Structure formats: structure tokens, C-alpha cells
TrEMBL record:
<comment type="similarity">
    <text>Belongs to the class-I aminoacyl-tRNA synthetase family.</text>
</comment>
<dbReference type="GO" id="GO:0004830">
    <property type="term" value="F:tryptophan-tRNA ligase activity"/>
</dbReference>
<keyword id="KW-0436">Ligase</keyword>
<dbReference type="GO" id="GO:0005759">
    <property type="term" value="C:mitochondrial matrix"/>
</dbReference>
<protein>
    <recommendedName>
        <fullName>Tryptophan--tRNA ligase, mitochondrial</fullName>
        <ecNumber>6.1.1.2</ecNumber>
    </recommendedName>
</protein>
<dbReference type="InterPro" id="IPR050203">
    <property type="entry name" value="Trp-tRNA_synthetase"/>
</dbReference>
<keyword id="KW-0030">Aminoacyl-tRNA synthetase</keyword>
<keyword id="KW-0547">Nucleotide-binding</keyword>
<dbReference type="GO" id="GO:0005524">
    <property type="term" value="F:ATP binding"/>
</dbReference>
<dbReference type="InterPro" id="IPR014729">
    <property type="entry name" value="Rossmann-like_a/b/a_fold"/>
</dbReference>
<dbReference type="InterPro" id="IPR024109">
    <property type="entry name" value="Trp-tRNA-ligase_bac-type"/>
</dbReference>
<dbReference type="InterPro" id="IPR002305">
    <property type="entry name" value="aa-tRNA-synth_Ic"/>
</dbReference>
<keyword id="KW-0067">ATP-binding</keyword>
<dbReference type="Pfam" id="PF00579">
    <property type="entry name" value="tRNA-synt_1b"/>
</dbReference>
<dbReference type="InterPro" id="IPR001412">
    <property type="entry name" value="aa-tRNA-synth_I_CS"/>
</dbReference>
<keyword id="KW-0648">Protein biosynthesis</keyword>
<dbReference type="InterPro" id="IPR002306">
    <property type="entry name" value="Trp-tRNA-ligase"/>
</dbReference>
Length: 396
């Protein structure tokens, strides 16, 4: 789960990047029209999450993390920002325990390296806030199995066709684990637990946000207006494609590590990966995604990083006279220079001397998140009849 957002700096408000016909996006459209009034009168809560699956790559950085930092820096002071490292989601597939611990620390260091400020944003491990799983169970008691069977998350993990339902496929049921199947319920709990008013997502996550809204609706219909229904903020996330297979998105799951640039890669490693990136034998440099996907991907990456705001087409014209070796050297320099400060800060944070600093950051963030989650859960427990006995429990 990884979210991105376009942030309107003058107003300090979220704005959608394109329209969608879902109910939640209609709500966002209204928010966009009246953003100035809402920003002045209502505090917003923004929630985003990232799975700890290793050091984030260039696609993660450009698609969401860079925008998270910008959102933090340009939001109104009244806006709450929560960023979760969603380690419970990570174990829907088998993980080596030591590797998962390392990945969590790498993800935490990356969030700080890209500019997230723990004094401004709440950064925490999902598993450190047990209210996530408690609310998940309560929501599971009303969540529709039929709806879940049509969700895309488990289908993509098991490479099951979209038209297949878990309820109808013997093969799917045999391979499907409950955790993966109920993943959207936990994701709904993540969001609803903090009263998130806006959740920035890519288009592939819209279905999950609709499900979170449905969970809130079902709960509120029975128990009253307890849970806040989040509004979906569609992101203008930049698509960065694989260096080896430019028709696929850059991914940490690709078996060839040379298919992606990690944010901690040094200049030499970046150069090696770009040198081996798929291009073509055509002369010159041109931006033609359909006919020259490899070259066009490198141009798109350069444009995302270009300090002068030049488009891929403009950069193609500037590089047109270069041969492929010269062009790849230019791309390497652009990426290496753009990641230099993030890479240096990441390496400092991952130094053994900074172990206690990272621990302190995540402990403080997790405690802050739990205090906020506790307020929601106190109301939820009361209306469903599960409230704690307070002092009576302390005396036992």
C-alpha cells in the first residue's frame, strides 16, 4: 500500500488530479470547488501507508514519497499527517523475521531521508498499535465476503483473472489465505482508526478506499456516526517503468535487481544499471513511448528530476544529437545528483550509531498514533458493548 497526492500549496489543501465516477470522488470534487472554505473551517487528517519490502526504489520516491514530503511542508498547521509502515500487511506473504526487521528500519530511514519530519508528521509501525487489528475484527463482523471475493489485491498476488471469484474457484480457494483475502478490511481499519478525512491514493487503490467507506457506512448505520468516511484523493503519481522491461512498472518484486534504481544506490551502481537498461539501436534520442519504450522511460525519469521543469519531449530535443552511450551517461548524472542528499542522509541514518535515534523516532510516533487510535476505539467499544472496565480491571 503506497499513496501519493497532489498538494495545492497556496491553499494547503488536497486536490484531485483527475475525476472518477465513484461516489467518493464526487465528494472530492465538491471539496475541490469549496477548498478555501473547508481549509479555513475544518481540520484535516491525512493517512498514508507504505509496506516495508526493502529500500524504496525510484518509482516509489517519485510516485509518492517526494509528494509526502511536499504535502507535509505545505499543509496548514491544523492538518494532521500520519505515515504508517504497514508491517502487518507485509506478512500476507511469508517473510523471514530478520529480513522484515531490516526492511522496516530501511523504510523508516528512507522516510526520514526524503524529508519527513517526525516533529510534524506521525511516523510509526502499524504493528505497534494493536488497535489496528482490534478494529479490523470488529469491521470483519459486518464486511461482505462477496465484496471481498471481487477485490483485486488477492487476485493480483495469486495471478487469478479479474473475472474469477474466490467463492467460485476451487483452485483459488485452495491457494488463498485468510490474511490476504481480508487484507482490505485491515486497510479499512488503518484508515478509519485515525478519523482520516482524506486518503491520497493511486488509481489502483480506489477500490480499497471505496471498501473502507462501505465499512464505515455499515458500522455507522447500526451504531451511529462514529467512524469518519474518508474521501479519496486521486494522485498524479508519476509512473516509472522497469529499466529491463519498460512495459512494466518499476517494482521491488522483479527478480532482476538491475531493473530498478534504489534511493540509496551510489553513482557507480546507478551507472551500471542505466548502462544495462533496455533501449534500442535507432539513431538519436526521441520520446516515442509506443515505438521506443526504453529510451522514453529514461527521458521520463529525467523529466521528473529536472530542476528546470522540462518535459520528456523537450529533453529529447536537447539530447537528440547524442549517441546512446552519451545519453545514458547524462541520465546517470541526473539521477545520481538528484538522489545525492537523500542517499547521504539515508546512509547516515542506517549507520549503527543512529540505531537509538531511529528507535526513538518510531517509539514516539507509535505512542502518538496509539493515543489517537485509542480515542476512536473508546467510542467504538462503547457502542458495540466492549468498553474496558477501567479501574475495575486495574484492581484484578
Amino acid at each position: 500500500m503506497l499513496f501519493g497526492v497532489r498538494w495545492h500549496s497556496r491553499l494547503g489543501c488536497c486536490q484531485p488530479s483527475w475525476s472518477c465516477k465513484s461516489a467518493s470522488t464526487h465528494a472530492i470534487s465538491g471539496f475541490n470547488r469549496h477548498s478555501k472554505r473547508l481549509c479555513a473551517t475544518k481540520a484535516h487528517v491525512i493517512f498514508s501507508g507504505i509496506q516495508p519490502t526493502g529500500v524504496p526504489h525510484l518509482g516509489n520516491y517519485l510516485g509518492a514519497l517526494q509528494q509526502w514530503a511536499r504535502l507535509q511542508n505545505e499543509a496548514l498547521p491544523s492538518t494532521q499527517l500520519l505515515y504508517a509502515i504497514v508491517d502487518l500487511h507485509a506478512i500476507t506473504t511469508n517473510q523471514d523475521a530478520d529480513q522484515l526487521r531490516r526492511w522496516k528500519r530501511e523504510t523508516l530511514a528512507t522516510l526520514l531521508a526524503v524529508g519527513l519530519d517526525p516533529e510534524r508528521s506521525t511516523i510509526f509501525y502499524q504493528s505497534a498499535v494493536p488497535e489496528h487489528t482490534e478494529l479490523m475484527w470488529i469491521l470483519s463482523c459486518t464486511a461482505s465476503v462477496g465484496y471481498l471475493s471481487r477485490m483485486t489485491q488477492w487476485k493480483s498476488k495469486l495471478t487469478v483473472p479479474d473475472e474469477v471469484s474466490a467463492l467460485d474457484s476451487t483452485s483459488a480457494k485452495a491457494r488463498l489465505k485468510l490474511g490476504l483475502f481480508s487484507y482490505p478490511v485491515l486497510q479499512a481499519a488503518d484508515i478509519l482508526l485515525y478519523g482520516a478525512t482524506h486518503v491520497p491514493v493511486g488509481e489502483d487503490q480506489v477500490q480499497h478506499l471505496e471498501f473502507a467507506r462501505q465499512c464505515a457506512d455499515q458500522f455507522n448505520t447500526v451504531h451511529g456516526e462514529i467512524l469518519v468516511k474518508p474521501q479519496t484523493v486521486l494522485s498524479s503519481a508519476r509512473r516509472v517503468m522497469s529499466l529491463k522491461e519498460p512495459h512494466l512498472k518499476m517494482s521491488k518484486s522483479h527478480q532482476d535487481f538491475r531493473s530498478r534504481i534504489q534511493v540509496n544506490d551510489g553513482p557507480k551502481l546507478i551507472g551500471d544499471k542505466i548502462r544495462l537498461a533496455m533501449t534500442d539501436s535507432m539513431p538519436g534520442v526521441s520520446y516515442e513511448p509506443d515505438h521506443r519504450p526504453g529510451v522514453s522511460n529514461l527521458l521520463a525519469i529525467m523529466s521528473y528530476l529536472d530542476g528546470r521543469g522540462r518535459t520528456a519531449e523537450e529533453l529529447a530535443r536537447a539530447c537528440n544529437s547524442m549517441n546512446m552511450r552519451q545519453f545514458k551517461e547524462t541520465v546517470t548524472s541526473a539521477i545520481s545528483e538528484s538522489l545525492a542528499s537523500t542517499r547521504d542522509k539515508y546512509n547516515r541514518l542506517m549507520n549503527k550509531d543512529e540505531t537509538h535515534y531511529l528507535d526513538d523516532i518510531v517509539i514516539e510516533g507509535s505512542n502518538k498514533a496509539r493515543r489517537q487510535a485509542g480515542k476512536t476505539m473508546a467510542a467504538v467499544r462503547q457502542v458495540v458493548g466492549l468498553e474496558h472496565m477501567g479501574r475495575a480491571l486495574e484492581r484484578i
